[in-house]
Amino acid sequence: ASALPAALPTRSTAEWRALDAAHALHPFTDYKALAAEGSRIITRADGVYLWDSEGTRILDGMAGLWCVNAGYGRRELVDAAARQMTALPYYNLFFKTATPPAIELARKLVELTPAGLNHVFFTNSGSEANDTVIRMVRQYWALEDQPERRVIIGRHNGYHGSTVAATAMGGMGAMRRQGGLPLPDFEHIREPNRLRYGPDQSPEDFGRAAAGWLEEAIQAIGPGRVAAFIGEPIQGAGGLIVPPPGYWAEIQRICANHGILLIADEVICGFGRTGRWFGSQTFDIRPDIMTLAKGLSSGYLPIAAVMVGDRVSRTLIDKGGEFIHGFTYSGHPTACAVALENISILEREGLVDRVREDIGPFLMERLEGLRDHPLVGEVRGKGLMAGVELIRDKDQHSFFAPVGRVGTRCRDHCFSNNVVIRAVEDTMVMAPPLIITRDQIETMVDTLARALDRTQRDLPRLMSS
Ligand code: PMP
């Protein structure tokens, strides 16, 4: 059945590809390479499956961009949007107005997030949420009469978005080299990547050592200049880095010791991805500020949020005057209505508990079966967020160079077998919708296993070209 809206013209795949190549500048894309290969046109989706314009069914092991937590084809979300659009498609939260969906969603988010996060600032994307945090944190310290506390410390390979400021705060090397970055007052420490930086240490020792890099950075910058530390509970786009035991507790202690605000970027980890509502609960982090996006609406509409803890909100409210910041669509009522219904689906169907108790452990168990493959250096993950890192030599802990070529080949083998698995450099990454079944996980992992074999066979040619 064609699910294309009637308003769109019917075209062949070739026509779509030609038009796309002629006009669209895609995000995170090498334009020449795309023009040469053509894009795959996705026309509809249901459950964990996508269909392309040729009618091929594809298992989406990445839930879009880690976001379609409730799965595709949810009629309830369509109905929630239609109801809200009929009643009030749009109004804003500026100048002392409010709308019921934004009020209800704020209340719900306060209820779901860890204690003490009692206020919400809505934005449209994770990038905007993190940008908002930068302005809010600096405003907080200015109001606290410590305006020299401006530096925000992030981590190498941390991803916080694509706006100018979010890119500066993030730690993606190649990304930061474009566009006149970096900006001043953003510093970075190494991410807790044990395979890279501590393969011979116990996880506990490495966790302590990696958190110690924060203390070193604070001392080097000067504690009186540091405003905040930001990290993803599990680093996603930067290689699926699962924190070693004790890491977050030590980070928490160091931040508290210096009075530095702790920000958890929950854009990926939120809404059940790690088996609890938020990664902060999985890793026992008590953040002062939390950013949310993606799974908040399961990607059905763009919406994101900054959860603000009492320490910061009290200052903003009591001493702040006007916070001169916001977006036309902050708290968009239709997006809020869809987010509310999405959260209610996750609750009704017990999807978060299912990730923790059943399907998450099942995915990890199946992936563990790949550990003995000659290409596999490490299998790591939590909940429905997993990475399989490919390395050149397991005993020597030596990596492939140039980095990413082997991972990309493996990803292409998965994709040509109709399973979306992402390659972050040479780590194969999976984050499927939370509704994925055991059979679908078997298919995904079997496809990855075959792709690993094919990649292994391709190695001599790959590394010599
Ligand atoms: N933070 C994290 C941890 C992310 O993974 C992303 C997106 N991948 C963002 C922020 C940025 O979100 P958006 O793309 O919605 O701006």
From TrEMBL:
Q: Per UniProt, what is one Pfam family of this protein?
A: Aminotran_3
Question: Which InterPro entries does the protein's record reference?
Answer: Aminotrans_3, Aminotrans_3_PPA_site, PyrdxlP-dep_Trfase, PyrdxlP-dep_Trfase_major, PyrdxlP-dep_Trfase_small
Q: Tell me the GO molecular function terms.
A: pyridoxal phosphate binding; transaminase activity
Q: What is its EC number?
A: 2.6.1.-
Q: Which UniProt keywords apply?
A: Aminotransferase, Pyridoxal phosphate, Transferase
Extract the PROSITE patterns matched here.
AA_TRANSFER_CLASS_3 (PS00600)
Family membership, please give it: Belongs to the class-III pyridoxal-phosphate-dependent aminotransferase family.
Q: What is this protein called?
A: Putrescine aminotransferase
Q: Which organism is it from?
A: Roseospira goensis
